[in-house]
Structures are given as C-alpha cells and as structure tokens.
Amino acid sequence: MAAKAVTNKGLHGRLDGPPGASRAVLERRTRWLLIVAVGGANLAGALFVLLFSTFVMPDPPGIADPAHVRFVNLLVFCAYLVFGAPIGVTWGLWLFRPVRTFAGHEHDPTEKERRGVLRGPLRLLAMQGTLWGLGAVGWAVIDAPYSGLLALKVGMITALGGVTTCAIVYLLTERLLRPIAAVVMAAGPAQYDAWFGITPRAMLAWALGSAVPVLGSVAAAVAALVVDGMSLTQLAGTILVLGGVALLVGAPVTYIAARAIADPVRSVREGLARVERGDLQASVPVYDASELGRLQAGFNHMAAGLRENERVRDLFGRHVGEDVARHALEHGVVLGGELREAAVFFVDLQGSTHLAATRPPGEVVALLNAYFGVVVEVVARHGGLINKFQGDAALAVFGVPERLEDPAGQALAAARELSRRLRAELPQLVAGIGVSAGQVVAGHIGAEQRLEYTVIGDPVNEAARLSDLAKAAPDRLLASETVVAAAGPGEAAHWRLGSAVTLRGRTSRTRLAAPFRRPPPSGIDRVINRLRR
Question: At what angle do helices 232-276 and 291-320 cross, to 10 degrees?
C-alpha cells in the first residue's frame, strides 16, 4: 500500500501551487515566481544602493561638482536596468534549464539534472554574487576619478547591498524550488551536501540581521571621522536609515530562513504524531539535500521499516495465531514447553477425498476456504486459538498461550456455535467436532532454525478421536465428560451425558457428552439428572 504523505502549510501552501500538479505546471509556475522574486530583490537592492549612496551617506570632501557625480551615479543605475537586469535574468534562466529539461519531458531526472535542481539556489547565489561584485568594482572605478574616498564609499555600499540581495535571493530560491526539489528527491536519495545545510542558512540570516547593519554603522562612523563637517544630524540620519532597513528587510528574511528549518521539522513532527496514533502509512516530502532532508528521509525510512515489521507481524499472526505471535514477541521464543490446563476441540471433514475427486479444484478450494473461515471466526469470537490446520481438519485450543477465565466453557460454546453454523451455512459438508480438556504441554518444538508452537497431550488425542465418532452423531458434535465437568455452570447446562466408550487407540473409557437438542433443562430437571447419575 502506498504511503500517504503528510501535507502541511510549509509544503502545500500558496507558493507551491495545487497538490498533484504536473511537473510542467510546477516548472512554469516556479520559473515565473523566481523571475519576479529575483528580479524584484535585485531591483530593490540597486535602488537602495543608489539612494543611500547619493542622499543618505554624505560625500567625502574635495569633490568639485557633487551634482555631476549624482548624475553619473544615476546613469550607472539606468545602465544596470538596461543591461545588468536582462543579463541576470538570462543567466538565471540558463541555470534553471535542468528543471525545464526533465519537467518538460516528464521523465525521471538524470543525476546531472538532479544536481542542477538541488544546487539551483547555490548556483543562483554565486551568479548574483558575481554580478554584484562586478557592479561594485565597476561603480567604484567610474567614481574613482572624482575621489578615492568616493569610490571606496560607493564600492562598500554596493558590496553590502549585494550581500543583502544575494542572501534574499538564496532563501527565496530555496523556498520556491521546494515543489521541484520534492519531485527530484522522490526519484531517489540525494547525496548529502554541507552547502545546503542549516549552518549556511543561519549564517545568511545572521548576515542580514547583524553583519550588514553593523558594517553599515561602522562605515558611517568612519565617514564621520574622515569627512570634515559631517554633522551629528547626518550621522544620526545615516544610522536611522540603516537600522530601519535592517528591521524591514531582516525580519521577513529571517522569518523565511527560520521557516526553511521549521517546515521540515514540523512535517516530521506531524508524521510522528500520525505514527503514534497507529497510522503507519504516513510519509513526509523530502525537498532538499541538507540535514533536514536527511531527517525527512530518515522518517520515511523509519515508517517504511515499521510498515514492513507490521506486515511481518501480521503474516506471523496469521500463520501461528495472534496470541502466539504476541506472546513470542513479548517473551521471546524458547524451545520447550510448559504444563498447562487447557481445553481443545478438533474439527474434521468427512469425505474430503471424495469431494476432491468429484468436484472441480476451484470449487473445492472455495468450499474449504469458506469452511475454515467459519472455524476461524467462531474460535476467535470465543477467545480460542487455531493451533494448526491439518489438511481438512483444524485444532483449536483454549487457555494457551494466554490464560482464560473458563477455557472449557468457552471451548464448548465455540463447538456448539460451530456445529450450528456449519450445518446451516455449509450443509454440503459433514464435519465432526470433538471437545476435550485436561493437562497439555504447550510450547515451541523443532529446531532453532525452524520451529512451531504446538499443544501436545492426551486431550488433543481424545478430541481427535471424538471428532471421528461425532461424524455419526445427530449434531456431529461430541465432548468428553471431563470438559463438561470443568466448564462453568452456564455452559455445562447445555450438555447432557451419555454412555461411556473406549475410543480408538485408548485404553481408558471416555464418557460422552452431547448438546441438548432442546432448551437446557430447568433447575429441577438438573437436580433429577444428577440423582440419576
């Protein structure tokens, strides 16, 4: 049975599109979201650098024409919009081509395509860092003829803006690529890569929340020391702008970084809750190659192991009985047995050889399955255990391995119900039922490599012989006096004692008991019956 994925807001939210969407739909949706997110982050970063370097951070002294410098900086910004932004988008789409390749053709991704998807955020980060680094150097070179300090100021501000933008781009890309990464990871496990781990994401959040604002404040302090005539108002304004930007940008980006860690943990927690409630079909989506992805994959492996163990336990229980399986799992399996008081009944078909010879094999199998189905259902309802099937016969035990309050009474009640149901539901079959009780040895016999749980003792042999004799009885059901005497008064009242016989293969005589074919006698009748005995 296929495992059911744990869905949560972290994965199946608005950013991920509708669950069950095709790869092509996910690819197109993710591509456009990335274009908007990455383009918007870069445009906002460039605009901030322009405004901060032009209007917030004061220019160093000695510039002959500040207005001309501002005009040149504006031209640089316009050049970025005309040339830099298209180059960045084109380069980003080129990096995105592995996703388009396997998603468009709906085939399983190759190893190269898998690496391209999983390393997409890192590659996009490297691409953005390269562009911003070139931009910082180029802008500084353009402003260098006016003033060396001006070039240093512009280069530093551009570098800080680039760090912030690159961090935002990385976190957004990692979040937006989750649906595609989940498809890739579903095709096979990915090798762990430390570049995608928790530490890089935490460092990016630190860079945005602490490093960039602190460096900006340091730069403002240096400018106050170097620039003659920089007023306290200008310094305060610069620091206020840096603090405001840090709060406005750092809070949502830190939230994104925190969700990148919290979402996988939450999905695993929800999966564990489902497993705790007994739902072993739970699984969680795996969408990255970090420690978090390994945590998600580890949960899925654990759930698969639990499902396999449950399957083995179910098969084990079906073969040896649920009580025997539970007892073996709780107490272990040791060769040998223990002496116990138990009740048994043996049910055996008459004429099964003739049945197999005169009917088609499929019909014979269907009849036997229906016959054994009734036997198993009745025995389980009365707290017994099917110890073994022997061809067309079955041995049921009551009181081992789990103790019962009235094993003899429960065995007799089960035998009466089985006799009634077989005659009513399968009249074409004749089955004799024998019931006995007494001391048996119950335990595992065989060898360490192959063993079975069985019950050995005189009651088993007596029940088998009684089942042969019962095939000619009116109700096809006989019990020994011993089991009726051991039963509780309520069940014993349904049985009447008959003559004593010597069963085949036995030396002692067995007094027979059969169920009343009319309602059980009243209290006075039971007293009279005891006096007659």
Answer: 10
